[in-house]
Amino acid sequence: MSNQKRRKYDREFKLEAVRLSHEPGRSVAGVARDLGISGNVLHNWRIRLAEDEVSAFPGKGHQSAEQTELRRLRRQLTEVTEERDILKKALAVFSRGPR
After folding, report:
1. Residue among 56, 78, 81 at smallest CA distance from 67
2. Distance between CA atoms of 17 and 75, rounded to whole angstroms?
3. What pLDDT band is residue 3 in, cutting at 50, 70 and 90?
């Protein structure tokens, strides 16, 4: 395993890197090399920015409304599934009848 720490970049750095990669005469690989990042990372940043400029690179703890709703629904699904499993077990116990 690698002992390297995962590097974190702020929103401004990512936006500037993407802007540089769109300049005429500059390649994604060249900009990535100049900035000391992977070409794949820069390519992914370009895709994320193209998909949604407003909520791209939200930062730590800042989620889009859709991500927040999805998280809430997953939590609710887990809770309801646990309740259902408890009820199934209780039904099995009470339907056995007296011994």
Report:
1. 56
2. 36
3. low
Per-residue pLDDT reduced to its tens digit, 33-58: 999 999 999 999 999 888 877 777 76
Residue count of the chain, please give it: 99
Residues 6 or more apart in contact with residue 49 via CB below 8 angstroms: 14, 15, 18, 56, 57
The DSSP call for residue 23 is S
Q: Please state whether the predicted TM-score (pTM) of the whole model is above 0.85.
A: no
Q: For 11-28, what is each residue's pLDDT tens digit? A: 889 989 999 998 999 999
Question: Distance of alpha carbon 44 from its chain centroid, rounded?
Answer: 12
H-assigned helices in 1-99: 11-22, 28-35, 39-51, 65-95
Tokens standing for 86?
A: 């408890």
Dihedral sign, Cα of residue 13, residue 59, residue 39, residue 25: negative
